[in-house]
Amino acid sequence: MSEFFNSLVQFQFLQNALIAGILASIGCGVIGPFVVVNRISYLAGGIAHAVLGGMGAAIYYQVDPLVGALTAAIVSALLIAYIKLNWNQQEDTIIGALWAVGMASGILFISQTPGYNTELLSFLFGNILVVSNAELNLMIALDLILIFIVLVCYRYLVAISFDHEFAETRGINAKFFYTLLLVLVAITVVLLIQVVGLILVIALLTLPAAIASQYYFSIHKIIALSIALGLLFTSSGLVISYQPDFPAGATIIVVAGCSFLISSLIRNPLLAFIHKFKVKSQ
Amino acid sequence: MSVIVDVDNISFSYQAQRVLENVSLQLNEGDFAALIGPNGGGKTTLIKILLGLLKPTQGTIKLFGQTGTKAKKSIAYVPQFANFRRDFPITVYETVLHGCLGRNGFFKFFSAEDKKAVEQAMFETDTWEYRNRPISDLSGGQLQRVLVARALAGKPKLLLLDEPTANIDERSERDIFDLFKELNKRMTIIVISHDISFVSEYINRVFCLNKTLLKHEAKPVDNVTIQKLYGEHISEVHHAHSCSHDRHQH
Prior knowledge:
CATH architecture of chain B: 3-Layer(aba) Sandwich
Number of domains of chain B: 1
Shape of chain B: globular
Radius of gyration of chain B: 18 Å
CATH superfamily of chain A: ABC transporter involved in vitamin B12 uptake, BtuC
Distance between the termini of chain B: 20 Å
Radius of gyration of chain A: 19 Å
Number of helices of chain A: 10
CATH topology of chain B: Rossmann fold
Structural class of chain A: mainly alpha
Number of strands of chain B: 9
Number of helices of chain B: 7
CATH architecture of chain A: Orthogonal Bundle
Strand order of the largest sheet of chain B: 5-6-7-3-8-9
CATH topology of chain A: ABC transporter involved in vitamin B12 uptake, BtuC
Strand content of chain A: under 5%
Number of domains of chain A: 1
Order of helices and strands of chain A: HHHHHHHHHH
Largest interface: A-B, 23 and 30 residues
CATH class of chain A: Mainly Alpha
Helix content of chain A: over 70%
Oligomer: heterodimer
Structural class of chain B: alpha/beta
Largest sheet of chain A: none
């Protein structure tokens, strides 16, 4: 561990990696709880995998891959929202098709781009150790957009997630806010791709929120704990993976997955203990 | 007495299936009306049309003398349980606060006045003591009171209740209807119910709906109407007149 901290002081790439982890944690902590309570991780998966099409096209046309990813993510979010809201019966088939076609077209674009084939793995599984300053700036901008929109629309997003019919009776446009939620998920997916890649993105989006929702019964509290857990998982994953040279993204997900498992096992005894302690101290 | 609800010859279809046909009804300020009829008879559809969630294929609706969505802020709705997941992470207080949505501007957060209205609604429905509990911890009767509190937080003039006591025990049902009777002193109420005998102790108007309106008078529901409504023989409904309300005509 000491070797990691010595290197952290020395190397900018490691500092960037740590900052990228922090920025990704904020994004997944703010949006993850909405994905979990709306049970839309499948839709988020569709968006994440369709992103490869945008990244592949961007590389082929020599544009920044993250710009291609962001465009593809938002377009696929809008498309999925439209399908979900209007073609309910064929929803899973169409989203599955979008998922696969997005990935396939990305692979086709990348295969036709000379010299870029090796980058495919880093798109799929992420490479937090090569995040540039420009990419960090984009991540900061995306985080600020997410925080601003969620702060302004928090009560509406919670209302449509909880009881969309009642929200509509109060004059809230549930379809608009559902579409907005999927666009926010798309932005978060792009944020997280740098850290864990598009295959593992769903795990980082949902696991911290799933753990937090075992302990809190308000979305704002779940958001706060999800951000803290995201920070813990990305930082500890980075530290653990550094010395044995494990892939950082995969290590982060294994840490998050094990934490979820442990939390699920100890939740009930832990809450019973806390309750007992509270009663005793009263 | 002013007309609060004016439904004029509306029809509604789900694709090819006609659910409502030429329905007209009027409700006056202070009415407590029951909407009864068989499953699939169009009761919930009519409520959803009144709420603006569905648009009729024909006919017009005026609420408080206005058409369109202008009157939405004065209407509140208590749904059946099934509209949301019971394990959703939300406290009782936050749930009731949702009743104030749409009262302020888009960018404005809940105001002190909203919070006062929530507090008042929660005291009125006896839900204040469990305001910090998650809704997943509540019994059926407690949850139903929370949903009523949520509806009251918006300070409505018209309260629409869609089978508000489905799936709760008889004692809680009576408590909740006693509360509605109290609320009826300051607002007009429409309730969907299957229990004609029970609700007739509280209401002053009854509308029997099975695609079209079979009866819409403030008179007792007789055997002929019930047979027309449900398509089978049902014994005459007898009920006690415990309600001393002047307008009760059963």
